[in-house]
């Protein structure tokens, strides 16, 4: 057995590079070129590989040690090195008068000596698994920072769930439903149109054209940035290798220095439903718009369920919604939900709270459902059933154990403030790192992960993440809710401006909304807010920015908002809290 010193290779003149990961321990058997430790400079992360196969006799570094080129990392006991042929001793043959060089084809004379270690050659610097909003953002940012990047997506087009079968197509259909409602509403102020005629094929084509425009744009940007895209399903084969299976079943291997897992989530399929029947749908199926059912049951009164209920009601379906919780959109303040609940009722949507489906059977005439709870629907037979009860993370579908990445029971992957998993060169972002499962959250996480890999010293410091339900009216909220403040015993004050006093809302004939701000009583800083009404999703960003900037009530109230607009309701809500509002008469408290 021979002992071989493994040293730090040339690392570009950097000194004092920290050891961020120990990949082996004394006693481990290692292969030639297997990584022993991971180093991280301000430019990149790299592994120091073993220069020979053998057993790790000793590690000469500890976690967080600073090392430089030539420092000894480990001692490897190598049987192969010991048994390698040694050069013939000089005394075995008469010495020549002068040194004779070995023939060009001769084997190296010093095979027993350790070869200089070199940086492991990977196929790419960064591989991103999943091309949704978080994934493509991560890949594009990594490429912009000079890293050789590969983006792996299982579907034919980039964009993930959001662009292909989620956020974008649903908003296209919601716009169509909004137009139908606007036309009907015009009758109230003297403009009458004929009843709408719905060309379902053309509407479906419009939705697909919106999706296609965006996904083609992504493909173009990937080419411009020289991001290599691979179509296939990726799983880990080792800490630095992916196995990618394409649509034809062919498998290829891809090695990487860093990975960003952005594999997202999928719709939860509740047991007890006949999922083999196409009349039972998840959100993806509902967006296919196969037909407009006469009677539609929506199981789940969250954002996705209510958005699709809005679409199908607008297209002419008789919609019933059942929700197990005591209110619609359980994450929002109850007062924000009330205007939506009232409008749904006025539109003929039957909402049943504290109720669940206990059985569903496929029959010739429809899906027969059995209910349990406080509010049992009269209708039991439906042409279609949409199950929209949430999404589950895909972390458990990537063979993460082969890379040593920890995955929780629900498919969630724990990460630190830099989006690192427990394996330092592998990152995770988006839906599979936890709530909220929102595209705009994933986008920021993807950008952060790419920048950290490139050597930037950053971490996740977002104070707030806004949420929006694109229903009619829309509901949007951000930061600390009034319900949360009460539950935590926070001393807060509320400024609420009703849209019944908004000239713009009155002109639109949509006065059911309001804007609410939550202030910290000690500092008078805004810490939360909620808006319900048309275009609430467009308005909530001002509140989010105000919270991020640490705005006090006067900062918002003294900012001149254009009149007449819905956005001025944010400034007026601050004035309500501050007691300076003139567009309402609020008696002073004694």
Structure description:
With 590 residues, the protein is of the alpha/beta class. It is 26% helix and 26% strand. Strands 9, 10, 11, 12, 13, 14 and 25 form a seven-stranded mixed beta sheet that branches. Strands 16-23-17-18-19 form a five-stranded parallel beta sheet. Strands 26-27-30-29-28 form a five-stranded antiparallel beta sheet, sandwiched between helices. Strand 4 and strand 5 form a beta hairpin. Helix 4 packs across helix 5. The termini are far apart. The relative contact order is 0.10.
Can you give me a brief rundown of this structure?
Helix content is 26%, strand content 26%.
Secondary-structure map:
Elements lengths: L1 E6 L9 E6 L6 E2 L4 E6 L4 E5 L4 E6 L6 E2 L4 E7 H5 L40 E6 L3 H12 L4 E5 L6 H6 L1 H19 L14 H25 L3 E4 L1 E6 L2 E5 L5 E11 L3 E3 L12 E2 L1 H6 L6 E5 L3 H13 L2 E6 L10 H13 L3 E4 L1 E8 L4 E7 L7 E2 L1 E4 L3 E3 L32 E3 L10 H15 L13 E3 L4 E6 L2 H7 L3 E7 L4 H6 L5 E7 L5 E8 L2 H13 L4 H5 L10 H11 L12
Parallel strand pairs: 9-10, 9-14, 10-11, 14-25, 16-23, 17-18, 17-23, 18-19
Antiparallel strand pairs: 1-8, 2-4, 2-7, 3-6, 4-5, 6-8, 12-13, 13-14, 15-24, 20-21, 21-22, 26-27, 27-30, 28-29, 29-30
Helix content: 25-40%
C-alpha Rg, in Å? 31 Å
Distance linking N and C termini: 91 Å
Category by helix and strand content: alpha/beta
- Sheet with the most strands, sense and barrel status: 7 strands, mixed
Helical stretch tally = 14
Pick out the low-confidence regions: 81-119
How confident is the prediction overall: mean pLDDT? 89
């Amino acid at each position: 057995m021979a002992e071989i010193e493994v040293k730090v290779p040339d690392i570009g003149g950097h000194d004092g590079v920290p050891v961020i990961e120990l990949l082996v321990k004394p006693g481990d058997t290692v292969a030639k070129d297997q990584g022993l430790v991971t180093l991280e400079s301000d430019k990149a992360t790299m592994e120091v590989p073993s220069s020979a196969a053998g057993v790790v006799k000793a590690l000469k570094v500890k976690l967080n040690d600073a090392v430089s080129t030539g420092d000894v990392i480990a001692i490897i006991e190598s049987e192969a090195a010991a048994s390698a042929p040694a050069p013939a001793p000089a005394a075995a043959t008469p010495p020549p008068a002068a040194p004779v060089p070995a023939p060009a084809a001769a084997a190296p004379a010093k095979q027993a000596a350790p070869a200089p270690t070199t940086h492991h050659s990977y196929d790419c610097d960064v591989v991103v698994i999943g091309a949704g909003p978080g994934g493509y953002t991560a890949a594009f940012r990594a490429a912009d920072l000079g890293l050789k990047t590969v983006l792996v997506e299982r579907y034919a087009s980039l964009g993930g769930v959001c662009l292909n079968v989620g956020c974008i197509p649903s908003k296209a259909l919601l716009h169509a439903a909004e137009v139908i409602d606007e036309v009907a509403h015009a009758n109230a102020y003297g403009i009458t149109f004929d009843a709408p005629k719905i060309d379902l094929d053309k509407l479906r084509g419009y939705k697909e054209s919106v999706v296609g425009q965006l996904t083609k744009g992504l493909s173009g940007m990937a080419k411009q940035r020289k991001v290599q895209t691979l179509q296939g399903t990726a799983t880990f084969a080792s800490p630095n290798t992916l196995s990618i299976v394409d649509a034809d079943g062919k498998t290829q291997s891809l090695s990487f220095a860093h990975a960003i897992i952005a594999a997202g989530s999928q719709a939860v399929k509740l047991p007890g439903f006949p999922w083999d029947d196409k009349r039972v749908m998840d959100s993806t199926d509902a967006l296919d718009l196969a037909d407009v059912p006469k009677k539609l049951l929506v199981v789940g009164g969250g954002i996705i369920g209510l958005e699709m209920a809005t679409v199908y009601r607008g297209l002419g379906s008789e919609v019933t919604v059942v929700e197990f919780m005591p209110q619609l959109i359980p994450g929002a303040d109850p007062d924000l939900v009330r205007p939506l609940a009232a409008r749904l009722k006025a539109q003929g949507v039957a909402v049943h709270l504290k109720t669940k489906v206990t059985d569903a059977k496929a029959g010739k005439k429809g899906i027969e459902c059995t209910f349990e709870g406080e509010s049992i629907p009269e209708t039991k037979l439906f042409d279609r059933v949409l199950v929209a009860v949430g999404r589950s993370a895909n972390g458990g579908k990537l063979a993460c154990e082969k890379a040593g990445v920890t995955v929780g029971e629900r498919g969630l992957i724990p990460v630190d403030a830099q989006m690192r998993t427990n394996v330092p060169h592998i990152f995770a972002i988006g839906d599979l790192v936890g709530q909220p499962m929102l595209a705009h959250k994933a986008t920021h996480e993807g950008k952060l992960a790419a920048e950290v890999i490139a050597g930037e010293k950053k971490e996740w410091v977002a104070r707030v993440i806004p949420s929006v339900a694109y229903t009619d009216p829309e509901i949007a909220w951000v930061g600390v809710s009034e319900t949360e403040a009460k539950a935590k015993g926070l001393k807060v004050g509320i400024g609420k401006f009703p849209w019944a006093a908004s000239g713009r809302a009155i002109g639109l004939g949509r006065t059911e909304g309001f804007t609410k701000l939550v202030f910290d009583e000690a500092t008078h800083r805004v810490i939360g807010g909620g808006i319900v009404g048309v275009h609430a999703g467009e308005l909530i960003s001002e509140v989010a920015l105000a919270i991020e900037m640490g705005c006090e009530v006067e900062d918002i109230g003294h900012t001149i908002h254009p009149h007449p607009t819905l956005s001025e309701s944010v400034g007026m809500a601050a004035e309500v809290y501050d007691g300076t509002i003139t567009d309402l008469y609020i008696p002073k408290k004694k």
